[in-house]
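Recall the central idea of this unit: under ordinary conditions, the amino acid sequence of a chain determines the structure it adopts. In this exercise we apply that idea directly, starting from the sequence alone.
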Amino acid sequence: AIIEKFCAKHPWINFLASDPTIRSSTSVCLTMDLSKEQVKKMVTLLENEGVAYDINAYRDSPVGLRIWCGATVQESDLEALMPWLKWAYDHVNNE
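Accordingly, the structure predicted from this sequence is:
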């Protein structure tokens, strides 16, 4: 629900699976209106800030992010991540 609210508020990010009934609730895959190079920069920024690691989409998937939302992740962690996603997006999109 946290990621759904974030995506609804920001038109530049969407779920890879547009149909909510087939979305994974643990390995959440997102697409963005960025190039492959921009997403790579975004992932690097998040890693360098110590915010998120290994969130790049799978190699054979469309360009985007993959966020683990399994039982080991607290809601507060996802809430803390969302502003960072916007920060990284704004940073690479405005270069």
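Helices lie at 2-9, 36-48, 75-93.
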